[in-house]
Amino acid sequence: xxxxSTIDHQLSHRSIRAFKPQGxxxxxxxxxxxxxxxxxxxxxxxxxxxxxxTDPDKRAAVRRLSKQPYIGANGDLLIFLVDLYRxxxxxxxxxxxxxxxxxxxxFQQAVEDTVLAIQNTLVAAxxxxxxxxxxxxxxxxxxxLIKVLNLPKMTFPLLGLQVGIPDQxxxxxxxxxxxxxxxxxDYHRDFMASDLKAYxxxxxxxxxxxxxxxxxxxFTKQIAGTKLDHHETTRDRLAAAIQQQGLALDWE
Length: 252
Description:
Order of helices and strands: HHEHEHHEHEHHHH
Mean pLDDT: 93
Strand content: 5-15%
Distance between the termini: 46 Å
């Protein structure tokens, strides 16, 4: 396997949730922003923005909505936004209507831009000796989060990134085996849950070593368990929140 410093960081990625009290320097933040700015973008429309949340009240509100005590605590909190507002303004300045800006297609392209940008930023952070964790939990209550962040229509808070100087060194979490993830030419329709028996044992051992007092089952039991069971959650407001922002209005 070919290795260089960047690949080594990617292969040893660990989500960091405990950070030292100091924030990042302006130089460090600028480097991360530049890594995001130079990310691949669909059709060169550059449809994402980054909100650096420094206001203590807003950080506390994001932490409350996310229900994760480390969010908005030590380190820096970046919210990555799907951003069609900027391109809407450009069209308006040119005397044009919104065109396809409200379609699912363009929204999806903006989602892709945003996801790629946050991953690029995390890789850059880890290559600088920093740590981070991508935060999907910021969307626990998307309608309320949009109010907290005072976001205009045509934007949407997709993911957060808590980043800073690591204050922990967690174990490497085992991932699905390559022969489950990688296929050539045809999808492996003959997959069976029992194919993951060996992987389940590895996952169970990982959790047992991490916290022997907290029982967490194997990968397949987690997927078959409450994570995907039917239950009501504020995340069910996601589609409505997206459309309230004027995005993907052609969804049925």
